[in-house]
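ok trying again, last paste got cut off:
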Amino acid sequence: MSFKSDIEIAQEAKPQDIREIAKKLELMEEDIELYGKYKAKVDYNLLKRETGKKAKLILTTAINPTPAGEGKTTTTIGVADGLAKLDKNVLVALREPSLGPVFGVKGGAAGGGYAQVVPMEDINLHFTGDFHAIGAANNLLAAMIDNHIYQGNKLDIDPRRITWRRCVDMNDRQLRFVVDGLGGKANGMPREDGFDITVASEIMAAFCLANDISDLKERLSRIIIGYNRSGEPVTAGQINAHGAMAALLKDALKPNLVQTLEGTPAFVHGGPFANIAHGCNSVIATKMAMHFADYVITEAGFGADLGAEKFLDIKCRMADLKPDAVIIVATVRALKYNGGVAKNDLNEENLEALEKGLPNLLKHVENITKVYKLPAVVAINRFPLDTEAEINLVKQKCEELGVNVALSEVWAKGGEGGVEVAKEVLRLIEEEENDFTFAYESDMPIKDKIRNIAQKVYGADDVDFTPATTKEIENLENLGFKEMPICMAKTQYSLTDDKTKLGRPTGFNITVRQVTVSAGAGFIVALTGEIMKMPGLPKVPAAERIDVDENGTISGLF
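nice, full thing came through this time. structure:
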Protein backbone atom coordinates (compact mmCIF):
# COMPACT_ATOMS: atom_id res chain seq x y z
CA MET A 1 0.00 0.00 0.00
CA SER A 2 1.51 3.35 -1.03
CA PHE A 3 0.59 6.75 0.35
CA LYS A 4 1.33 10.25 -0.84
CA SER A 5 3.69 12.21 1.38
CA ASP A 6 2.45 15.27 3.24
CA ILE A 7 4.39 17.60 0.97
CA GLU A 8 3.03 15.91 -2.17
CA ILE A 9 -0.53 16.38 -0.89
CA ALA A 10 0.16 20.01 0.00
CA GLN A 11 1.77 20.76 -3.38
CA GLU A 12 -1.20 19.30 -5.26
CA ALA A 13 -3.66 21.48 -3.32
CA LYS A 14 -5.32 24.51 -4.90
CA PRO A 15 -5.43 27.05 -2.06
CA GLN A 16 -7.72 30.05 -2.20
CA ASP A 17 -6.38 33.58 -2.48
CA ILE A 18 -5.75 34.73 1.09
CA ARG A 19 -8.05 37.71 0.48
CA GLU A 20 -10.92 35.24 0.08
CA ILE A 21 -9.97 33.58 3.38
CA ALA A 22 -9.93 37.00 5.04
CA LYS A 23 -13.46 37.65 3.78
CA LYS A 24 -14.65 34.63 5.76
CA LEU A 25 -13.59 36.59 8.86
CA GLU A 26 -15.28 39.74 7.49
CA LEU A 27 -11.86 41.29 6.87
CA MET A 28 -11.29 43.45 3.84
CA GLU A 29 -8.05 43.82 1.89
CA GLU A 30 -7.19 47.02 3.76
CA ASP A 31 -7.28 45.01 7.03
CA ILE A 32 -4.48 42.66 5.99
CA GLU A 33 -0.87 42.92 4.78
CA LEU A 34 -0.23 40.51 1.92
CA TYR A 35 2.82 38.24 1.86
CA GLY A 36 2.22 36.85 -1.62
CA LYS A 37 -1.07 35.19 -2.60
CA TYR A 38 -1.48 32.77 0.29
CA LYS A 39 -0.15 34.48 3.43
CA ALA A 40 -1.04 37.70 5.19
CA LYS A 41 -0.39 39.59 8.41
CA VAL A 42 -3.40 40.84 10.35
CA ASP A 43 -3.08 43.96 12.52
CA TYR A 44 -3.80 43.13 16.17
CA ASN A 45 -5.38 46.58 16.54
CA LEU A 46 -8.43 44.99 14.89
CA LEU A 47 -9.13 43.58 18.36
CA LYS A 48 -10.56 47.03 19.06
CA ARG A 49 -13.21 46.51 16.35
CA GLU A 50 -16.50 45.33 17.83
CA THR A 51 -17.63 41.98 16.39
CA GLY A 52 -20.01 40.70 19.04
CA LYS A 53 -18.38 37.26 18.97
CA LYS A 54 -18.29 35.09 22.10
CA ALA A 55 -16.15 32.27 20.76
CA LYS A 56 -15.85 28.82 22.28
CA LEU A 57 -12.20 27.88 22.89
CA ILE A 58 -11.17 24.26 22.29
CA LEU A 59 -7.72 23.01 23.34
CA THR A 60 -6.00 20.04 21.68
CA THR A 61 -3.43 18.10 23.70
CA ALA A 62 -2.15 14.51 23.67
CA ILE A 63 -0.44 11.67 25.45
CA ASN A 64 3.34 11.77 25.90
CA PRO A 65 4.93 11.86 22.44
CA THR A 66 6.66 8.78 21.03
CA PRO A 67 8.60 8.00 17.84
CA ALA A 68 5.33 6.45 16.61
CA GLY A 69 3.68 9.87 16.32
CA GLU A 70 0.42 11.19 17.76
CA GLY A 71 -0.82 13.74 15.22
CA LYS A 72 -1.92 16.55 17.53
CA THR A 73 -1.60 19.33 14.96
CA THR A 74 -3.13 17.11 12.28
CA THR A 75 -6.11 16.40 14.54
CA THR A 76 -6.49 20.08 15.45
CA ILE A 77 -6.69 21.04 11.78
CA GLY A 78 -8.92 18.12 10.78
CA VAL A 79 -11.42 18.73 13.58
CA ALA A 80 -11.58 22.41 12.62
CA ASP A 81 -12.40 21.34 9.06
CA GLY A 82 -14.95 18.94 10.57
CA LEU A 83 -16.62 21.81 12.42
CA ALA A 84 -16.64 23.79 9.17
CA LYS A 85 -18.45 20.87 7.51
CA LEU A 86 -21.05 21.19 10.28
CA ASP A 87 -21.51 24.82 9.17
CA LYS A 88 -19.70 26.29 12.16
CA ASN A 89 -17.73 29.53 11.92
CA VAL A 90 -14.35 28.16 13.01
CA LEU A 91 -10.74 29.33 13.09
CA VAL A 92 -7.53 27.42 13.88
CA ALA A 93 -4.78 28.94 16.07
CA LEU A 94 -1.42 27.14 15.81
CA ARG A 95 2.26 27.70 16.54
CA GLU A 96 4.89 28.36 13.90
CA PRO A 97 7.37 25.50 13.36
CA SER A 98 11.00 25.88 14.42
CA LEU A 99 13.73 25.09 11.92
CA GLY A 100 15.38 22.92 14.59
CA PRO A 101 12.84 20.06 14.43
CA VAL A 102 12.22 20.62 10.70
CA PHE A 103 15.86 19.76 9.95
CA GLY A 104 16.30 17.48 12.97
CA VAL A 105 14.09 14.57 14.04
CA LYS A 106 10.48 15.63 14.04
CA GLY A 107 10.09 17.20 10.62
CA GLY A 108 7.47 19.82 9.82
CA ALA A 109 4.64 21.00 12.02
CA ALA A 110 1.91 22.06 9.61
CA GLY A 111 -0.27 18.98 10.05
CA GLY A 112 -0.28 15.89 7.87
CA GLY A 113 -2.12 13.98 5.15
CA TYR A 114 -5.34 15.73 4.21
CA ALA A 115 -5.40 17.84 7.38
CA GLN A 116 -2.73 20.49 6.80
CA VAL A 117 -2.29 24.23 6.81
CA VAL A 118 -0.83 25.67 3.62
CA PRO A 119 1.46 26.87 2.10
CA MET A 120 3.16 24.03 3.95
CA GLU A 121 6.72 24.66 2.70
CA ASP A 122 6.59 28.35 3.63
CA ILE A 123 5.13 27.70 7.07
CA ASN A 124 7.82 25.12 7.86
CA LEU A 125 10.70 27.26 6.60
CA HIS A 126 11.04 31.07 6.77
CA PHE A 127 7.30 31.87 6.65
CA THR A 128 6.91 35.64 7.27
CA GLY A 129 10.21 36.09 9.10
CA ASP A 130 8.85 36.16 12.67
CA PHE A 131 11.50 33.84 14.08
CA HIS A 132 14.27 35.81 12.41
CA ALA A 133 12.95 38.97 14.08
CA ILE A 134 12.83 37.24 17.47
CA GLY A 135 16.38 35.96 17.04
CA ALA A 136 17.56 39.43 15.99
CA ALA A 137 15.96 41.03 19.05
CA ASN A 138 17.54 38.40 21.31
CA ASN A 139 20.99 38.90 19.82
CA LEU A 140 20.70 42.69 19.80
CA LEU A 141 20.28 42.54 23.57
CA ALA A 142 23.30 40.22 23.85
CA ALA A 143 25.40 42.60 21.75
CA MET A 144 24.32 45.61 23.85
CA ILE A 145 25.20 43.81 27.10
CA ASP A 146 28.75 43.08 25.95
CA ASN A 147 29.10 46.56 24.47
CA HIS A 148 27.98 48.09 27.79
CA ILE A 149 30.75 46.19 29.57
CA TYR A 150 33.30 47.12 26.89
CA GLN A 151 32.36 50.81 27.07
CA GLY A 152 33.05 51.13 30.81
CA ASN A 153 30.39 48.98 32.52
CA LYS A 154 28.47 51.80 34.21
CA LEU A 155 26.00 49.27 35.70
CA ASP A 156 28.89 47.21 37.17
CA ILE A 157 27.60 44.02 35.50
CA ASP A 158 29.45 40.94 36.72
CA PRO A 159 30.65 39.18 33.50
CA ARG A 160 30.60 35.86 35.40
CA ARG A 161 26.89 36.27 36.19
CA ILE A 162 25.46 37.18 32.80
CA THR A 163 22.46 34.90 32.28
CA TRP A 164 21.40 36.18 28.84
CA ARG A 165 22.52 33.90 25.99
CA ARG A 166 22.59 34.31 22.26
CA CYS A 167 20.26 32.25 20.05
CA VAL A 168 19.88 30.65 16.63
CA ASP A 169 16.88 28.74 15.25
CA MET A 170 18.76 25.53 14.55
CA ASN A 171 19.75 22.39 16.45
CA ASP A 172 23.47 23.01 17.01
CA ARG A 173 25.03 21.28 20.02
CA GLN A 174 28.42 22.85 19.19
CA LEU A 175 27.08 26.22 20.34
CA ARG A 176 25.70 25.17 23.75
CA PHE A 177 28.82 26.43 25.53
CA VAL A 178 31.29 28.82 23.92
CA VAL A 179 33.99 31.29 24.95
CA ASP A 180 33.82 34.59 23.09
CA GLY A 181 35.48 38.01 23.15
CA LEU A 182 38.87 36.46 22.29
CA GLY A 183 41.59 38.09 20.22
CA GLY A 184 42.61 41.09 22.29
CA LYS A 185 41.08 44.13 24.00
CA ALA A 186 39.42 45.51 20.86
CA ASN A 187 37.20 42.41 20.63
CA GLY A 188 35.57 42.75 24.02
CA MET A 189 36.00 40.95 27.33
CA PRO A 190 36.58 37.18 27.07
CA ARG A 191 33.85 35.28 28.86
CA GLU A 192 31.93 32.02 28.86
CA ASP A 193 28.76 32.25 26.80
CA GLY A 194 26.37 30.01 24.87
CA PHE A 195 23.45 29.75 22.47
CA ASP A 196 19.87 28.60 22.96
CA ILE A 197 17.53 27.63 20.15
CA THR A 198 15.38 30.66 19.24
CA VAL A 199 12.14 29.05 20.42
CA ALA A 200 13.67 28.76 23.92
CA SER A 201 14.52 32.47 24.05
CA GLU A 202 12.66 34.51 26.65
CA ILE A 203 11.90 36.90 23.79
CA MET A 204 9.74 34.17 22.24
CA ALA A 205 7.88 33.62 25.51
CA ALA A 206 7.33 37.35 26.13
CA PHE A 207 6.27 37.79 22.49
CA CYS A 208 3.68 35.02 22.81
CA LEU A 209 2.26 36.26 26.12
CA ALA A 210 2.09 39.97 25.24
CA ASN A 211 -1.27 41.68 24.59
CA ASP A 212 0.06 44.42 22.32
CA ILE A 213 3.25 46.31 21.42
CA SER A 214 3.17 48.41 24.61
CA ASP A 215 2.83 45.31 26.76
CA LEU A 216 5.62 43.63 24.80
CA LYS A 217 7.94 46.60 25.28
CA GLU A 218 7.25 46.59 29.02
CA ARG A 219 7.94 42.84 29.19
CA LEU A 220 11.20 43.27 27.27
CA SER A 221 12.33 45.99 29.67
CA ARG A 222 11.81 43.60 32.64
CA ILE A 223 14.05 40.86 31.25
CA ILE A 224 16.87 40.09 33.69
CA ILE A 225 20.12 39.77 31.76
CA GLY A 226 22.35 39.00 34.73
CA TYR A 227 23.53 40.46 38.03
CA ASN A 228 25.90 43.21 39.10
CA ARG A 229 28.81 42.66 41.46
CA SER A 230 26.55 43.47 44.43
CA GLY A 231 24.24 40.60 43.47
CA GLU A 232 21.38 42.80 42.24
CA PRO A 233 19.55 41.91 38.99
CA VAL A 234 20.22 44.00 35.88
CA THR A 235 17.46 44.37 33.30
CA ALA A 236 17.23 45.01 29.57
CA GLY A 237 15.50 48.28 30.45
CA GLN A 238 18.61 49.42 32.32
CA ILE A 239 20.65 48.62 29.20
CA ASN A 240 18.13 50.74 27.22
CA ALA A 241 17.63 47.89 24.75
CA HIS A 242 13.86 47.37 25.01
CA GLY A 243 12.79 50.09 22.58
CA ALA A 244 15.00 48.86 19.74
CA MET A 245 14.04 45.25 20.46
CA ALA A 246 10.35 46.13 20.26
CA ALA A 247 10.98 47.97 16.99
CA LEU A 248 12.44 44.78 15.53
CA LEU A 249 9.34 42.88 16.64
CA LYS A 250 6.70 45.43 15.53
CA ASP A 251 5.58 43.55 12.41
CA ALA A 252 6.28 40.08 13.76
CA LEU A 253 3.70 40.73 16.49
CA LYS A 254 0.91 40.72 13.88
CA PRO A 255 -0.63 37.22 13.54
CA ASN A 256 -0.14 35.31 10.29
CA LEU A 257 -3.28 34.33 8.41
CA VAL A 258 -3.18 31.17 6.27
CA GLN A 259 -5.68 28.37 5.52
CA THR A 260 -6.24 24.65 5.81
CA LEU A 261 -6.38 22.44 2.72
CA GLU A 262 -10.17 22.83 2.91
CA GLY A 263 -10.11 26.62 3.17
CA THR A 264 -10.68 27.01 6.91
CA PRO A 265 -8.94 30.19 8.18
CA ALA A 266 -5.91 29.64 10.42
CA PHE A 267 -3.68 31.90 12.49
CA VAL A 268 -0.14 30.50 12.77
CA HIS A 269 1.86 32.67 15.15
CA GLY A 270 4.64 32.24 17.69
CA GLY A 271 6.29 28.95 18.57
CA PRO A 272 7.80 28.24 22.00
CA PHE A 273 8.65 24.60 22.75
CA ALA A 274 6.56 23.01 25.51
CA ASN A 275 9.39 21.07 27.15
CA ILE A 276 11.56 24.14 27.79
CA ALA A 277 9.04 26.99 27.43
CA HIS A 278 5.26 27.35 27.67
CA GLY A 279 4.48 25.74 24.32
CA CYS A 280 1.50 27.74 23.02
CA ASN A 281 0.80 30.07 20.14
CA SER A 282 0.56 33.80 20.86
CA VAL A 283 -2.09 35.30 23.14
CA ILE A 284 -2.72 37.91 20.44
CA ALA A 285 -3.47 35.24 17.80
CA THR A 286 -5.75 33.29 20.15
CA LYS A 287 -7.68 36.40 21.15
CA MET A 288 -7.94 37.57 17.54
CA ALA A 289 -9.23 34.16 16.52
CA MET A 290 -11.86 34.35 19.27
CA HIS A 291 -12.68 37.86 18.10
CA PHE A 292 -13.55 36.77 14.56
CA ALA A 293 -14.92 33.22 14.89
CA ASP A 294 -17.53 31.32 16.92
CA TYR A 295 -15.27 28.31 17.54
CA VAL A 296 -11.48 28.39 17.95
CA ILE A 297 -9.32 25.28 18.09
CA THR A 298 -5.79 25.71 19.38
CA GLU A 299 -3.06 23.30 20.45
CA ALA A 300 -0.44 23.09 23.16
CA GLY A 301 2.85 21.27 22.67
CA PHE A 302 3.54 17.67 23.65
CA GLY A 303 1.34 15.93 26.26
CA ALA A 304 -1.13 17.20 28.82
CA ASP A 305 1.69 17.11 31.41
CA LEU A 306 3.60 19.82 29.53
CA GLY A 307 1.85 21.97 26.91
CA ALA A 308 -1.66 21.67 28.32
CA GLU A 309 -0.47 22.28 31.88
CA LYS A 310 1.31 25.45 30.76
CA PHE A 311 -1.55 26.55 28.52
CA LEU A 312 -3.92 26.28 31.47
CA ASP A 313 -1.70 27.42 34.35
CA ILE A 314 0.30 30.11 32.52
CA LYS A 315 -1.44 31.31 29.35
CA CYS A 316 -5.04 31.09 30.56
CA ARG A 317 -4.09 32.67 33.89
CA MET A 318 -2.26 35.58 32.26
CA ALA A 319 -4.69 36.15 29.37
CA ASP A 320 -7.91 35.47 31.32
CA LEU A 321 -8.93 32.63 29.00
CA LYS A 322 -11.17 29.67 29.82
CA PRO A 323 -11.28 26.61 27.54
CA ASP A 324 -14.71 25.18 26.78
CA ALA A 325 -13.52 21.66 25.87
CA VAL A 326 -10.32 19.65 25.45
CA ILE A 327 -9.36 17.07 22.82
CA ILE A 328 -6.78 14.49 23.96
CA VAL A 329 -5.10 12.83 20.96
CA ALA A 330 -3.83 9.25 21.14
CA THR A 331 -2.80 6.64 18.59
CA VAL A 332 -2.84 2.87 18.84
CA ARG A 333 0.80 2.86 17.73
CA ALA A 334 1.92 5.26 20.46
CA LEU A 335 0.02 3.34 23.13
CA LYS A 336 1.66 0.09 22.02
CA TYR A 337 5.02 1.84 22.24
CA ASN A 338 4.16 2.87 25.81
CA GLY A 339 3.32 -0.80 26.38
CA GLY A 340 6.85 -1.88 25.44
CA VAL A 341 6.64 -2.58 21.69
CA ALA A 342 9.71 -1.61 19.64
CA LYS A 343 9.21 1.05 16.96
CA ASN A 344 9.83 -1.42 14.13
CA ASP A 345 7.10 -3.77 15.39
CA LEU A 346 4.30 -1.22 15.83
CA ASN A 347 2.49 -2.24 12.64
CA GLU A 348 1.69 -5.67 14.09
CA GLU A 349 -1.48 -6.16 16.13
CA ASN A 350 -0.63 -6.47 19.83
CA LEU A 351 -3.62 -6.15 22.15
CA GLU A 352 -1.63 -7.07 25.25
CA ALA A 353 0.90 -4.27 24.75
CA LEU A 354 -1.89 -1.87 23.82
CA GLU A 355 -3.69 -2.54 27.09
CA LYS A 356 -0.40 -2.16 28.98
CA GLY A 357 0.18 1.27 27.39
CA LEU A 358 -3.33 2.62 28.01
CA PRO A 359 -2.61 3.95 31.55
CA ASN A 360 -0.51 6.73 30.00
CA LEU A 361 -3.57 7.96 28.11
CA LEU A 362 -5.80 7.64 31.16
CA LYS A 363 -3.41 9.75 33.27
CA HIS A 364 -3.62 12.58 30.73
CA VAL A 365 -7.41 12.28 30.75
CA GLU A 366 -7.37 12.53 34.57
CA ASN A 367 -5.18 15.61 34.35
CA ILE A 368 -7.72 17.41 32.20
CA THR A 369 -10.93 16.17 33.84
CA LYS A 370 -9.90 15.87 37.50
CA VAL A 371 -7.05 18.36 38.00
CA TYR A 372 -8.38 21.11 35.72
CA LYS A 373 -12.04 19.97 35.76
CA LEU A 374 -12.60 20.47 32.05
CA PRO A 375 -14.76 18.35 29.72
CA ALA A 376 -12.64 16.18 27.42
CA VAL A 377 -12.81 13.71 24.57
CA VAL A 378 -10.15 11.21 23.54
CA ALA A 379 -9.56 11.41 19.78
CA ILE A 380 -8.17 8.11 18.52
CA ASN A 381 -6.07 9.26 15.59
CA ARG A 382 -6.40 6.29 13.26
CA PHE A 383 -3.41 5.07 11.25
CA PRO A 384 -3.99 2.97 8.09
CA LEU A 385 -2.60 -0.24 9.62
CA ASP A 386 -4.52 -0.06 12.93
CA THR A 387 -6.82 -3.08 13.30
CA GLU A 388 -10.48 -2.99 14.30
CA ALA A 389 -9.68 -5.05 17.39
CA GLU A 390 -7.12 -2.47 18.52
CA ILE A 391 -9.45 0.47 17.92
CA ASN A 392 -12.27 -1.29 19.76
CA LEU A 393 -10.03 -2.12 22.73
CA VAL A 394 -9.10 1.56 23.21
CA LYS A 395 -12.76 2.56 22.94
CA GLN A 396 -13.83 -0.16 25.37
CA LYS A 397 -11.25 0.70 28.03
CA CYS A 398 -12.03 4.41 27.80
CA GLU A 399 -15.78 3.83 28.02
CA GLU A 400 -15.37 1.50 31.01
CA LEU A 401 -13.85 4.44 32.89
CA GLY A 402 -16.45 6.93 31.67
CA VAL A 403 -14.05 8.61 29.25
CA ASN A 404 -15.57 10.18 26.14
CA VAL A 405 -13.96 8.82 22.98
CA ALA A 406 -14.31 9.43 19.23
CA LEU A 407 -12.50 8.21 16.13
CA SER A 408 -10.40 10.66 14.14
CA GLU A 409 -9.55 9.80 10.53
CA VAL A 410 -8.44 13.26 9.46
CA TRP A 411 -5.07 12.19 8.01
CA ALA A 412 -6.78 10.11 5.35
CA LYS A 413 -10.14 11.91 5.02
CA GLY A 414 -9.56 15.54 6.03
CA GLY A 415 -12.54 17.33 7.54
CA GLU A 416 -14.91 14.43 6.82
CA GLY A 417 -12.71 12.29 9.09
CA GLY A 418 -12.94 14.90 11.84
CA VAL A 419 -16.73 15.19 11.99
CA GLU A 420 -17.14 12.50 14.68
CA VAL A 421 -14.73 14.30 17.04
CA ALA A 422 -16.25 17.67 16.12
CA LYS A 423 -19.74 16.48 17.05
CA GLU A 424 -18.50 15.19 20.40
CA VAL A 425 -16.74 18.50 21.08
CA LEU A 426 -19.98 20.38 20.40
CA ARG A 427 -21.82 18.03 22.77
CA LEU A 428 -19.21 18.58 25.50
CA ILE A 429 -19.53 22.33 25.19
CA GLU A 430 -23.31 22.22 25.43
CA GLU A 431 -23.87 19.44 27.96
CA GLU A 432 -20.82 18.74 30.15
CA GLU A 433 -19.88 20.59 33.35
CA ASN A 434 -16.95 22.99 33.17
CA ASP A 435 -15.46 23.99 36.52
CA PHE A 436 -12.06 25.12 35.23
CA THR A 437 -9.53 25.20 38.07
CA PHE A 438 -5.79 25.86 38.10
CA ALA A 439 -3.35 23.25 39.45
CA TYR A 440 -2.02 25.82 41.97
CA GLU A 441 -2.73 29.32 43.20
CA SER A 442 -0.50 32.30 42.43
CA ASP A 443 0.12 33.20 46.06
CA MET A 444 1.63 29.81 46.96
CA PRO A 445 5.39 29.63 47.69
CA ILE A 446 7.44 28.65 44.63
CA LYS A 447 8.29 25.20 46.00
CA ASP A 448 4.63 24.43 46.69
CA LYS A 449 3.64 25.38 43.14
CA ILE A 450 6.30 23.07 41.71
CA ARG A 451 5.21 20.31 44.10
CA ASN A 452 1.57 20.74 43.05
CA ILE A 453 2.46 20.29 39.37
CA ALA A 454 4.68 17.28 40.05
CA GLN A 455 2.20 15.50 42.30
CA LYS A 456 -1.10 16.38 40.62
CA VAL A 457 -0.07 16.40 36.96
CA TYR A 458 2.91 14.00 36.78
CA GLY A 459 1.83 11.65 39.58
CA ALA A 460 5.11 12.08 41.50
CA ASP A 461 5.44 11.27 45.20
CA ASP A 462 7.46 14.43 45.91
CA VAL A 463 10.01 16.91 44.58
CA ASP A 464 13.71 16.99 45.44
CA PHE A 465 15.40 20.39 45.30
CA THR A 466 19.19 20.66 45.14
CA PRO A 467 20.77 22.93 47.80
CA ALA A 468 21.69 25.50 45.13
CA THR A 469 18.10 25.46 43.82
CA THR A 470 16.67 26.01 47.30
CA LYS A 471 18.98 28.99 47.76
CA GLU A 472 17.98 30.47 44.38
CA ILE A 473 14.26 30.01 45.13
CA GLU A 474 14.73 31.97 48.36
CA ASN A 475 16.56 34.67 46.38
CA LEU A 476 13.76 34.88 43.79
CA GLU A 477 11.10 35.15 46.47
CA ASN A 478 13.09 37.90 48.19
CA LEU A 479 13.33 39.74 44.85
CA GLY A 480 9.52 39.78 44.61
CA PHE A 481 8.93 36.98 42.09
CA LYS A 482 7.00 34.64 44.40
CA GLU A 483 3.60 35.08 42.70
CA MET A 484 4.75 34.18 39.19
CA PRO A 485 3.47 30.94 37.62
CA ILE A 486 5.85 28.04 37.07
CA CYS A 487 7.18 26.87 33.69
CA MET A 488 8.52 23.34 34.16
CA ALA A 489 11.36 22.30 31.85
CA LYS A 490 11.00 18.51 31.65
CA THR A 491 11.40 15.71 29.13
CA GLN A 492 8.36 15.33 26.93
CA TYR A 493 8.74 11.57 26.62
CA SER A 494 7.74 10.62 30.16
CA LEU A 495 5.53 11.76 33.01
CA THR A 496 8.75 11.66 35.07
CA ASP A 497 12.01 13.55 34.53
CA ASP A 498 13.55 10.34 33.09
CA LYS A 499 12.70 9.92 29.40
CA THR A 500 13.09 6.14 29.55
CA LYS A 501 10.16 5.62 31.95
CA LEU A 502 7.16 5.15 29.70
CA GLY A 503 3.52 4.39 30.48
CA ARG A 504 2.25 5.64 33.83
CA PRO A 505 5.13 5.36 36.32
CA THR A 506 4.53 5.41 40.08
CA GLY A 507 6.76 5.78 43.13
CA PHE A 508 9.06 8.45 41.73
CA ASN A 509 10.31 11.90 42.72
CA ILE A 510 11.03 14.83 40.41
CA THR A 511 14.41 16.52 40.90
CA VAL A 512 14.64 20.26 40.25
CA ARG A 513 18.29 21.05 39.54
CA GLN A 514 17.99 24.73 38.66
CA VAL A 515 15.48 27.58 38.75
CA THR A 516 15.66 30.82 36.79
CA VAL A 517 13.33 33.77 36.43
CA SER A 518 11.96 34.89 33.08
CA ALA A 519 10.78 38.25 34.37
CA GLY A 520 9.81 39.48 30.91
CA ALA A 521 7.72 36.43 30.12
CA GLY A 522 6.40 36.55 33.66
CA PHE A 523 7.20 33.06 34.95
CA ILE A 524 9.74 31.02 36.92
CA VAL A 525 11.50 28.24 34.96
CA ALA A 526 12.25 25.03 36.89
CA LEU A 527 14.71 22.75 35.10
CA THR A 528 14.52 19.01 35.73
CA GLY A 529 16.41 15.98 34.48
CA GLU A 530 18.75 16.47 31.54
CA ILE A 531 16.63 19.00 29.69
CA MET A 532 18.57 21.65 27.77
CA LYS A 533 17.73 24.73 25.71
CA MET A 534 19.82 23.83 22.66
CA PRO A 535 19.00 20.48 21.02
CA GLY A 536 21.42 18.62 18.78
CA LEU A 537 20.88 17.01 15.40
CA PRO A 538 20.32 13.22 15.32
CA LYS A 539 22.63 10.72 13.62
CA VAL A 540 20.62 11.03 10.41
CA PRO A 541 18.99 14.48 10.42
CA ALA A 542 15.87 15.18 8.38
CA ALA A 543 17.93 17.80 6.53
CA GLU A 544 19.68 15.01 4.61
CA ARG A 545 16.50 14.10 2.71
CA ILE A 546 15.34 17.67 1.93
CA ASP A 547 16.11 19.06 -1.52
CA VAL A 548 14.92 21.59 -4.09
CA ASP A 549 14.89 21.21 -7.90
CA GLU A 550 15.56 23.68 -10.70
CA ASN A 551 11.91 24.80 -10.61
CA GLY A 552 12.08 25.64 -6.92
CA THR A 553 9.98 22.62 -5.91
CA ILE A 554 10.97 21.33 -2.47
CA SER A 555 11.01 17.61 -1.69
CA GLY A 556 11.57 15.56 1.47
CA LEU A 557 10.02 18.14 3.78
CA PHE A 558 7.99 15.70 5.91
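cool. The longest strand covers residues 509-518. The chain has a mean pLDDT of 94.
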